[in-house]
Amino acid sequence: GDSVTQMEGPVTLSEEAFLTINCTYTATGYPSLFWYVQYPGEGLQLLLKATKADDKGSNKGFEATYRKETTSFHLEKGSVQVSDSAVYFCALSEGLDSSYKLIFGSGTRLLVRP
Amino acid sequence: DAGITQSPRHKVTETGTPVTLRCHQTENHRYMYWYRQDPGHGLRLIHYSYGVKDTDKGEVSDGYSVSRSKTEDFLLTLESATSSQTSVYFCAISGRNQPQHFGDGTRLSIL
After folding, report:
1. CA distance B64 to B49
2. Is the CB of A44 inside 8 Å of chain B's CB atoms?
3. pLDDT digit string (tens) for A49-82?
4. Which of the residues A74, B29, B57, B65 could staple to B61 if both were Cys, CB 3.0 to 4.6 A apart?
């Protein structure tokens, strides 16, 4: 079945460092791809999405490009802040309709030090 | 939080007791979902609903049942709770072809 694999955490960075969190997926169709962020004690918030190959999702300085040839959707940010410390989840939806059920990766914890 | 309320937010109960978690939305969205979050597993889908009285199983549905008698409420029931069901439970909602929005979660401990 479809699946999502994320890099193991935690990822520890200094403020203003460059961030990459790797995400690869396995899917039989043409999924939509998402990054969600979870701050301590809260639910998941949608960070960005991409619905077809070569689409780039972006929000709050974060970016990810849907790469069909490498089945990847890596999350990047040029300069992280302490407030970016959270757990990041990569996810895909089975099918073209992004309201369809989601399959999540295991999450990557990011810790940004001042 | 996109008009989603989960209740209770925390619950501690004993093995073998029934437990019901409630998800309430004010967005009139068609789709509602229940996930559980466990370390190392991310979120896994338990059940979902695509309309009133229309539900289907997810990846980890064993030991859980759901009901949706009206658009705004989606109930998750553990008929006889087990320690393996200790987890954080999240409800999500979405409209057609819209991303899912999540509630703040319910932390359930089964002793």
Report:
1. 14
2. yes
3. 998 899 999 999 999 999 999 999 999 999 999 9
4. B57
